[in-house]
């Protein structure tokens, strides 16, 4: 996801009538750099003063406290990707303060935090790369003001002063003052117009494996997630949704009996659901599950409703059977002319199922109406301003009357965007209104599997023309799917949704004549962003088909990649780096030390501004694929924390292996069949490969980290399987395939 | 119903079949123990019952009345638990962190029973799910805690 033009199309088919103008209504903050104020209310409130340049006003971000620790209000939500730590490294580097002295929370809605092209969300692997320069300047400016405050205090010239972490120092006299004692005076000064940044060669925190700020709290149960919200006197609520999206509760046959259950406070009808509020969640959940609800089906053709006859099987067949080569997303040379010159034609069709996010923290929302008429909401979210706007609409309040808390996320992977029907907060607001109490609503795991916004189902059809010399001369790829960007940010009639074709388009290989097309077919499911979005399936399609082209031309897949990357030194050296990391390219099959026959596959991807090369080693036994080792070379241009990058690659590999081998949401009669992890297995520890990571800082423009490690994994596995048994796995997940025996 | 949690006795006015998880979270207000699946698939709710790793989401309170229940909030008061937490921090295991309470409890139970587990014994005991895929770091941290 690098094409940001979609952001400026907001709103289109907006889920809850989001108004882009409204996003800017909550404007300038009134924070001071200085003494900490109890954080009971967000302080980035509307102000009449002019336009705010996001990422520039120090008080909106930093509060230097008397003990010289810093409260940092992060524009981005922490969900495990390490953004709180990375921002502390970046700002700490320039401010001259150890990252460990930062306390970080996600900032309230406000114009200061609209860091991504004038909008704010945590996703697209954008957080560090979109804010790196601004956060450095912020830290450097704050340091400058502290130096000025000390110069005034001591009546010396500013340029006679320097800093050590957390201290301003006057070397000549040996005097020092901690930042905490200067913060109040510094806050009354004007921020400098320009400020010098630290030389890269002198970095102490950026580029170093600084420890995460949150690991101890997360290892001792102290970290608080949205689901852990506790408000005195709150009710606990649980819901039962219509099994098919679009159904409405008609009669509740045993409502009186349910009301009489222990601890039950009240029974509620909600849009598309019923709810029970009780004095603990288990009672609420037990009661709502016992409610016998007759669901009224929506009239056929109702927008957004799930058709009663929808099944994964029939939708996949529908996608596969769409004719044509679609709207052009990319073209090089003249494929139509080149194909007839080919000595050989290779064709194949690939498929990918819907996928669930499966983050371990079930969605929840706590809603409280305050005496001053404001609404306070604690909800997992990747986009506070979007949620604020939507919540205001539900509550019938002005957006500035809605206070959004954005706790750390118990995993996200794209789960917590504003997807209509996939978030519990509108229900929590309605329940708080109906009961006059604070309500914490938690979706059971079963309700989460029912209402998650799934990865779109996708098909890709390929045709390649191979020359007499075995080199591909023409390549056509047609994506058949609906992209999540188009669904939530609006479609453009004459432009292909980049999220539908990313991973097929913009590949680096110099095939002289190539075309990527897109056939848009509406996905009847509620679709969403899933870690690495279109790349998560399209790079599987492309890179696996690449090996089919190599085979048709009688070429080794690694060598063919190298040849087609001859004009791209960055990609070529990355590919060589992953081969070296794995001990030299060795396709196999070969006998491993334990006697098993194994083989390796290779794949490349260019996701989210970074470049990645991946090698996987597999064996097959008992009808199952074992992934033993995965080697990943990643080039994000330049980096902030190598330890966090390695952890993110480990994580992306895990999800990549999981999606390749196991995962599939199956709909029958418009309903997802799996409602818990027993029916939707995710990668267990026993199937986790060893992961080896090499980070390469090529100096190119900074790319993303959270997602790029994923897309190369499924194709590297598929290509390794083909090397091992000659079988082409074209349909995800591989658990569905009957595996051929290994070639001896 | 009397429950002994983290060395403290509590009188609870709850149904006998209420899962221990919800007694801990909603009645006692200890939120370090997590709800993940409710059907003993993920292990986010793991606590110690008389030192044994137990999935509290499917354990009725009546089954553990009178037994010593330890939750993540008291883990550092336990000598083995403290070693495990230190190893978790050293190895920097956590990402989103949601499953890690349960992982730390499972590791503590393992090392109480088998102070120097083999890799196979670690694999057999550490079955909790982690969607962030911190599995390699978890195994490394268990090995490190066993050496400490």
Would you give an account of this structure?
The complex is a heterodimer of chains A (744) and B (148). Chain A is of the alpha+beta class and 744 residues long. Chain A folds into 3 domains: 5-217, Aldehyde oxidase/xanthine dehydrogenase, molybdopterin binding domain (Aldehyde Oxidoreductase, domain 4, 2-Layer Sandwich); 226-296 and 363-442, Aldehyde oxidase/xanthine dehydrogenase, molybdopterin binding domain (Aldehyde Oxidoreductase, domain 4, 2-Layer Sandwich), CATH 3.30.365.10; 322-354 and 455-736, Aldehyde Oxidoreductase, domain 4, CATH 3.30.365. In chain A, helix 3 links the parallel strand 2 (70-74) and strand 3. Chain A is globular and about 80 Å long. Chain A starts with 19 loop residues before the first helix and ends in a 19-residue tail after the last helix. Chain B has 148 residues and is an alpha+beta fold. Chain B folds into 2 domains: 2-74, Ubiquitin-like (UB roll) (Roll), CATH 3.10.20; 75-147, [2Fe-2S]-binding domain (DNA polymerase, domain 1, Orthogonal Bundle), CATH 1.10.150.120. In chain B, 40% of the residues lie in helices and 13% in strands. Chain B contains 6 helices and 5 strands. In chain B, strand 1 (2-5) and strand 2 (8-11) form a beta hairpin. The interface between A and B is large, with 62 and 56 residues.
Q: Name the shape of chain B in a single word.
A: globular
The radius of gyration of chain A is 27 Å
CATH architecture of the largest domain in chain A: 2-Layer Sandwich
For this structure, the quaternary state is heterodimer
Give, in spatial order, the strands making up the sheet with the most strands of chain B: 2-1-5-3-4
Major β-sheet profile of chain B: 5 strands, mixed
Mean pLDDT of chain B: 98
- Classification by helices and strands of chain B: alpha+beta
Number of strands of chain A: 27
Count of individual domains of chain B? 2
Largest sheet: spatial strand order of chain A: 9-10-7-17-14-15-16
* The CATH superfamily title of the largest domain in chain A: Aldehyde oxidase/xanthine dehydrogenase, molybdopterin binding domain
CATH fold naming of the largest domain in chain B = Ubiquitin-like (UB roll)
Low-confidence segments of chain A, given as residue ranges, are 11-49
At CATH's second level, what is the architecture of the largest domain in chain B? Roll
**Helix percent band of chain A:** 25-40%
Q: Tell me the distance between the termini of chain A.
A: 42 Å
* Relative strand content of chain A: 15-25%
């Amino acid at each position: 996801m690098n094409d940001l033009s979609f952001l400026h199309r907001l709103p289109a088919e907006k889920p809850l009538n989001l108004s882009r103008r409204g996003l800017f209504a909550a404007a300038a903050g009134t924070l001071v750099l200085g003494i900490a104020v109890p954080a009971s209310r967000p302080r980035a409130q509307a102000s009449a003063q002019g336009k705010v340049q996001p990422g520039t006003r120090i008080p909106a971000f930093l509060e230097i406290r008397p003990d010289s620790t810093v409260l940092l209000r992060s524009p981005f939500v922490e969900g495990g990707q390490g953004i709180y730590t990375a921002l502390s490294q970046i700002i700490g580097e320039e401010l001259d303060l150890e990252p460990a002295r930062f306390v970080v929370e996600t900032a309230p809605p406000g114009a200061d935090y609209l860091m991504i092209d004038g909008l704010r969300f945590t996703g697209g692997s954008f957080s560090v790369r979109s804010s790196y320069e601004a956060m450095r300047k912020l830290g450097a400016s704050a340091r400058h003001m502290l130096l000025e405050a000390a110069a005034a205090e001591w009546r010396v010239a500013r340029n006679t002063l320097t800093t050590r972490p957390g201290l301003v120092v006057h070397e000549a006299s040996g005097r020092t003052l901690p930042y905490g004692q200067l913060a109040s005076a510094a806050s009354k000064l004007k921020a400098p117009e320009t400020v010098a940044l630290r030389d890269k060669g002198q970095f102490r925190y950026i580029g170093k494996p600084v420890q995460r700020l949150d690991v101890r709290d997360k290892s001792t149960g102290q970290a608080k997630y949205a689901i852990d919200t506790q408000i005195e006197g709150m009710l606990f609520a649980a819901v039962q949704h219509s099994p098919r999206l679009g159904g409405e509760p008609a009669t509740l046959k045993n409502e009186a009996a349910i009301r009489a259950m222990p601890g039950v406070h009240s029974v509620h009808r909600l849009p598309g659901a019923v709810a029970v509020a009780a004095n603990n969640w288990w009672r609420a959940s037990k009661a709502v599950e016992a409610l016998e609800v007759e669901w009224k089906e929506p009239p056929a053709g109702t927008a957004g409703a799930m058709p009663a006859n929808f099944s994964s099987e029939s939708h996949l067949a529908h996608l596969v059977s769409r004719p044509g080569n679609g709207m052009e997303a990319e073209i090089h040379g003249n494929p139509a002319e080149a194909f007839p010159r080919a000595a050989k034609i290779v064709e194949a069709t690939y498929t990918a199922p819907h996928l669930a996010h499966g983050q371990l923290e079930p969605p929840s929302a706590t809603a409280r109406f305050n005496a001053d008429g404001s609404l306070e909401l604690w909800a997992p979210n990747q986009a506070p301003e979007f949620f604020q706007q939507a919540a205001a609409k539900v509550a019938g309040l002005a957006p500035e009357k809605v206070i959004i808390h954005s706790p750390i996320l118990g995993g996200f992977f794209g789960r917590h965007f504003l997807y209509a029907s996939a978030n519990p907060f509108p229900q929590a607001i309605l329940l708080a209104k109906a009961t006059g109490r604070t309500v914490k609503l938690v979706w059971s795991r079963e309700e989460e599997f029912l209402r998650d916004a799934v990865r779109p189902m996708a098909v890709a059809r390929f045709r390649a023309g191979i020359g007499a010399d075995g080199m591909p001369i023409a390549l056509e790829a047609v994506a058949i799917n609906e992209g999540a960007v188009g669904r939530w940010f609006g479609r453009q009639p004459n432009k292909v949704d980049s999220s539908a074709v990313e991973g097929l388009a913009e590949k680096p290989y110099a095939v002289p004549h190539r075309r990527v097309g897109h056939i848009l077919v509406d996905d009847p499911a509620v679709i969403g962003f899933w870690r690495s979005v279109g790349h998560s399936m399209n790079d599987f399609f492309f890179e696996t088909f690449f090996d089919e082209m190599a085979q048709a031309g009688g070429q080794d897949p690694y060598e063919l990649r190298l040849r087609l990357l001859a004009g791209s030194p960055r990609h070529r050296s990355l590919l060589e780096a992953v081969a070296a990391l794995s001990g030299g390219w060795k396709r196999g099959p070969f006998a491993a030390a334990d006697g098993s026959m194994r083989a390796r596959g290779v794949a490349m991807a260019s996701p989210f501004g970074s470049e990645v090369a991946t090698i996987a080693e597999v064996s097959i036994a008992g009808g199952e694929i074992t992934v033993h080792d995965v080697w990943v070379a990643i080039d994000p241009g330049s980096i902030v924390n190598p330890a966090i990058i390695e952890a993110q690659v480990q994580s992306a590999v895990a999800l990549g292996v999981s999606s390749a081998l196991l995962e599939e949401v199956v709909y029958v009669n418009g309903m997802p069949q799996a409602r818990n992890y027993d029916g939707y297995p995710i990668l267990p520890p026993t199937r986790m490969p060893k992961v080896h990571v090499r980070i390469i800082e090529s100096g190119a423009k900074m790319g993303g980290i959270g997602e790029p490690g994923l897309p190369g994994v499924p194709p590297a596995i598929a290509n390794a399987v083909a090397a091992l048994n000659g079988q082409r796995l074209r349909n995800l997940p591989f658990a569905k395939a009957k595996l051929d025996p290994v070639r001896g | 119903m009397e429950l002994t949690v983290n060395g403290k006795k509590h009188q609870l006015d709850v149904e006998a079949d209420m899962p221990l998880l919800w007694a801990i979270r909603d009645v006692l207000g200890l939120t370090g123990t997590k709800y993940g699946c409710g059907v003993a698939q993920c292990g986010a709710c793991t606590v110690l019952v008389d030192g044994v790793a137990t999935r509290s989401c499917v354990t009725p309170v009546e089954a553990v009345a009178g037994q010593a229940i330890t939750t993540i909030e008291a883990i550092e008061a336990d000598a083995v638990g403290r070693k495990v937490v230190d190893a978790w921090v050293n190895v920097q295991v956590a990402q989103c962190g949601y499953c890690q309470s349960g992982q730390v409890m499972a590791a503590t139970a393992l090392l109480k029973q088998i102070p120097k587990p083999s890799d196979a014994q670690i694999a057999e005991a550490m079955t909790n799910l982690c969607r962030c895929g911190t599995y390699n770091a978890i195994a490394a941290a268990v090995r490190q805690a066993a050496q400490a």
